[in-house]
Amino acid sequence: MNKITRRQALGTTAGALTVLGLTGAATSIATSAAATPAAPTPPGTVDEVYQGRRIQITSGGGGHHGGHHSPGQPTVRIDGRELHIMRNADGSWISVINHYETFTEPKLLARAAVRDLQGAPLVPFGGVA
Amino acid sequence: MTVRKNQATLTADEKRAFTSALLELKRNGSYDRFVTTHNGFIMSDTDSGDRVGHRSPSFLPWHRRFLLEFEEALQKVDASVALPYWDWTVDRTTRASLWAPDFLGGSGRARDGQVIDGPFAYSTGRWNIDVRVDGRPYLRRALGAGVAQLPTRAEVDSVLAMPVYDMAPWNSSSGGFRNHLEGWRGANLHNRVHVWVGGQMSTGVSPNDPVFWMHHAFIDKLWADWQAKHPQSTYLPAAGTTNVVDLNDTMRPWNDVTPADMLDHRKFYTFDTEPVAAAASQR
To answer: How many CB atoms lie within 10 A of CB B248?
Structure first.
């Protein structure tokens, strides 16, 4: 049991390193071609179906809804409707659906909102439906 | 003078008067304006920008003023009504009389979280959720589902023991009494109670659940208890702080009231049990 776990862990690490290596190579080609300092890796986008709902997260869009948020904040959508989210000073996240509970990343926040919604659609921000 | 009582001590008549006044504010449209105001602030208060109602030193005076305005609205309907407070360190189970059908009604049913008993059940036709963040028009709760336990008295006491009101950077990452009471750090008091109730209480439109007022009336009482325990401590910051309401700055949305105006609750109401000044206490 212990050996299998260890082997699996090593396998995972090797796989992750390979991916990182390829990414690093691609990045270094791109940056040397552009001759600019490497930009911070943008957080990955998400497009998944979770409990029958489509979660889409795009990075760095920002600027929605009257500019409540600093630019660069990801946009989270559930079945195409935007979920109002906010980043805390410690890097954790909250949403208008889970406003008093923090999550370590937007995907977990979006999944928590899906669980809470129990199939209900989001309505436009702060609006009277 | 208004006396705010522990909800567990209310008589049947007092409960009836309170819930009737709530239903009247809902009927005449006043109630939903409070929900809209709260949601507007909760969406715009940010750690790195302007912050007034939440995640900032003015969390406490802002909610004190917000509750005063709401209590005044209730008293226009029935002058005998005062906001009760919910001491969730004592009345900490779903069996508390708070959740009985003659008061707030109980938890939501499993299928859709809908509250199905009490004066605020959707089936009464008198408590539709109109200011909402999703399509559901009924009051929901999931008592104890989002987090298992309400804060304990010992946890409350550990936060009341903190001598400094608030600290830079004056947001959700701050040390000090305010942020530990609000719950972004440490034992997590105020935030955890919202999560424990669940339903609309865990969202930006939390005042849709009447328990919002009783929860915040207790948070407000804990501020008064803290003041009595630390008579040398006061609201911070004093002046000149970017994006933050200093002691003598006015607060939105009223623009004519400052944290300094809100420090002494006895100008507006007293509690059934007033905090005992630290000098006279052995604690």
So the answer is: 12
**pTM of the predicted protein model:** 0.87
Taking the C-alpha atoms of residue B177 and residue B163, their distance in angstroms, rounded to an integer, is 7
Cβ-contact A126, B36 below 8 angstroms? yes
The CA distance from B55 to the nearest CA of chain A, in Å, is: 9
The single-letter code of the amino acid at B3 is V
Cα B177 to its chain centre, rounded Å, is 16
pLDDT in tens, B75-126: 999 999 999 999 999 999 999 999 999 999 999 999 999 999 999 999 999 9
Give contacts of A88 with chain B, Cβ < 8 Å: 47, 55, 172-173, 184
CB-based contact B134:A120 (threshold 8 Å): yes
Is B108:B140 a contact under the CB 8 Å cutoff?
A: yes
CB B148 within 8 A of CB B120: no
d(CA B97, CA B260): 36
Interface predicted TM-score (ipTM) = 0.93
A100 contacts B202? CB cut-off 8 A: yes
